[in-house]
Amino acid sequence: MTTDLAAFARDKGVKYFMISFTDLFGGQRAKLVPAQAIADMQEEGAGFAGFATWLDMSPADPDMLAVPDPASVIQLPWKPEVAWVAATCVMEGAEVAQAPRNVLRAQIAAAAAEGLHVKTGVEAEYFLLTPSGETISDPYDTAEKPCYDQQAVMRRYDVVREICDYMLDLGWEPYQNDHEDANGQFEMNWAFDDALATADKHSFFKFMVKSVAEAHGFRATFMPKPIEGLTGNGCHVHVSVWDAPGKASKINVFAADPAPGDWAELGLSAQGAQFLGGIMRHATAIAAITNPVVNSYKRINAPVTHSGATWAPNTVTWTGNNRTHMVRVPGPGRFELRLADGAANPYLLQAVIIAAGLSGIRAKADPGPRLDIDMYAMGHTVTDAPRLPLNMLDALRAFDADGDLKAALGEAFAAAYLKLKHREWDAFVSHFSRWEKENALDI
User: Fold this and answer.
1) Measuring CA to CA, how many Å separate 85 from each of 155, 214, 305, 369, 438?
2) How far is Cα 189 from Cα 191, in angstroms, rounded to an integer?
3) pTM higher than the cut 0.85
4) For the chain, what is the mean pLDDT?
5) Right CATH number for 107-434 from 3.30.450.80, 2.20.25.90, 3.30.830.10, 3.30.590.10?
6) CA-to-CA distance for 394 and 416, rounded, in angstroms?
């Protein structure tokens, strides 16, 4: 583990560090710091005006200092004289409670206090578009069912190969790359890790994919639903809980020998089922964070796509190895949350999963009955499960009404997030669209 960034710079030939933090809206903010100055920055942090980013601050607030966490440092494979390092946001000697990475660190500490260490893996889908963002980059990618299309993935081989090579060099253990269910859409998978390490990698992955795409003359987007009629960008999260962090972990506390019962026969332990129960109990409120933008609700409440399925949930249900539900349990000792989309803040995504799961364990929450039906064909028959929010405002209201989840994540964070997100919603509804004129001009 790197502890001295100045020594890292000397050993690796790094000339500059990008001291980076992620704001409440998922924007990555950074200062480019010469290696000669990094020793002071490692002690004191780089100064930012928090109001100039999406944090709930005022122009009168003092400097927010981003103190680099050397354990997160990554040398840019495509520009090795630069290294990226995630930061801890501090103001006047205290950690900024609303800063997303701090919110996650607090959840990790809360879990560790109970002997629990959450490990996750993410499946971050993205589109490769033309530079304007209007159309997909490959004019020949027109198949009705393009998922796993061999020719289409090879036409973008140079981009996919470069990103995967970099992940291999970084030791992320990538294991598969594919063309996804929408035309122009791709997914790249790497090994699961401790929640903070996954969040840092997820954040860096978005930066890396966009940078490599731009170098090849394309535009990469993780927008939930960038193309009408096509499958959206999900960000599925695989969750398990262990007895220790990192490679020291030996016991998956979610795993158990199969036994009769809805969850037990799938190889989930009682704690695993209770963690899942917390996810189910808080799901409609969780959506405000896992699906954080107006466009998110074009994905989770979408009509049938050109390929025949949205691959996104719209109801709070769970199942075994069945991709039509919000949560599936594909194998013993873990589950996959299929709710989140590409706009999810990498740090808040992990934080809200841990907060909801810990709430479930403490309350010994029952996840409810398992459903094994095809939700896309028979979802209308499910009348006793909550529907996911229809829009961003409904999600924000559900989050605001969930006092337990807000308290778990921290009232300072919850208040800041709700304030800025309601402001975003107000900006959306005050926007005049072409649709309004087309449908109301002659009334």
Assistant:
1) 33, 21, 39, 43, 48
2) 7
3) yes
4) 97
5) 3.30.590.10
6) 18
